[in-house]
Design a protein that fits this description.
Layout: E1 8-11, H1 12-15, H2 19-28, E2 33-36, H3 38-41, H4 47-50, H5 54-66, E3 70-75, H6 85-105, E4 109-112, H7 123-146, E5 150-152, H8 163-173, E6 178-183, H9 196-207, E7 211-215, E8 218-222, E9 225-229, H10 238-245, E10 253-255, H11 264-272
Parallel strand pairs: 1-2, 1-10, 2-3, 3-4, 4-5, 5-6, 6-7, 7-10
Antiparallel strand pairs: 8-9
């Protein structure tokens, strides 16, 4: 498998427990690509209280540049169907602020999941779906004004639970600013693993070049439960994933999601050997 077209990033909070250690460890380990969950890493700032602060943004961006980091994904993982209106409003305001930070950082997308809910066969599901769309419309308006992309990560237990529902979101919103963070592992239960090629086929057929970033985390099954495994050490059909990505006009950014820093170098070697 030819991986020369890809740079493998890590989540910032897997590199270091705070912003200084993330920077130090990232440089020492030659990491250049981040999924930067800023609120999990920059622990000296309460972003809900501060909102968007241009001086803070410029200072963080300067340090990221000094370390040679790009930010394909700025993580702002909120619950956009939260039934608690006060908490929901706080989350949406944080996401709006992070859109503005993403503009300063030149981030590829601001990423979120879509809230845990019941399955599409339950009427409550569609109530949650409509709430999600209403809130996403609000966020997309800000994203469009800032020329920033929003990255939606489908999860099999979430409001956006399949490639088909993600396609519906894209059509319902009607904005080019809605992109996809594709995480095959999050779209699979243990029982669905034999269908992983079908899910990948559906994802790339329905979503195409909306797939802006890919989370790559392998998985194993132990006692019927799906568990994390380092890339190439589990059951994920990684060669097939990269085969599908090879047909894309724009190659997605790849994040080795949930991978401990000490396993990074070996994971890259293992991927190159496929």
């Amino acid at each position: 498998m030819n991986i020369s077209n890809y740079t493998f990033g890590l989540r910032g909070h897997d590199i270091g427990d705070d912003f200084p250690s993330m920077c130090t460890n990232g440089v020492e380990n030659h990491i250049t690509s981040l999924q930067f969950a800023m609120a999990k890493t920059v622990k000296t700032i309460d972003f809900d209280a501060v909102g968007f602060d241009r001086a803070v943004a410029d200072d963080i961006h300067r340090k990221l540049c000094e370390c040679g980091f790009s930010v394909p994904v700025l993580g702002c993982y909120i619950n956009p169907i939260d039934a608690n209106e006060e908490r929901l409003e706080r989350s949406l305001r944080r996401f709006e602020a992070f859109i503005r930070y993403a503009q300063v950082f030149h981030a590829g997308v601001v990423g979120t999941e879509t809230g845990v809910t019941v399955g599409p066969d339950d009427p409550v599901y569609w109530e949650n779906y409509r709430l999600f769309i209403r809130n996403l419309v609000r966020l997309v308006e800000v994203a469009e004004s800032c020329e920033v992309n929003i990255g939606i990560e489908p999860v099999c237990t979430g409001t956006v639970c399949s490639p088909q529902i993600m396609r519906r979101v894209i059509d319902d919103i009607g904005s080019d600013r809605v992109k996809v963070i594709l995480d095959l592992s999050n779209l699979l239960t243990a029982e669905m693993i034999p269908s992983q090629r079908k899910i990948l086929d559906d994802s790339f057929e329905l979503l195409g070049d909306r797939v802006w970033a890919v989370h790559l985390k392998d998985f194993a099954v132990v006692d019927g439960k799906k568990l994390f495994a380092p890339p190439t050490r589990g059951l994920m059909d990684i060669p097939y994933l990269f085969e599908q990505m090879s047909f894309m006009e724009r190659k997605p950014d790849v994040i080795l999601d949930n991978l401990p820093l000490e396993l990074y170098a070996q994971a890259v070697k293992d991927l190159a050997a496929l």
